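Tutorial, part two.
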Amino acid sequence: MRKIVIALAAIGALSAVAAPALAGPATGAAIGAGSGLLVAGPPGAVVGGVIGAVVGGPNIHSYHNHRVYYHHHRRYYVERGERHYF
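Running the prediction step on this input gives:
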């Protein structure tokens, strides 16, 4: 049990240094491993980490809960003085 916890801590430390391009799978793996550990113990952590890495992490948009503006038929939000159309 102790070796598994140490291995999970090492994997967590390595995933914290992951490249920004891998942020979705890395956060998904961390969230999956954490929830799997709480639900089913060490085997659940492994399975949850694999599933979380495949599915990916949360997709958080920065324009939520901000005012949306309309310019003719296009919608946009303003962040740091710049218009972002969507």
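The chain has two domains: 2-55, 61-86. In part three we will examine how such features are distributed along the chain.
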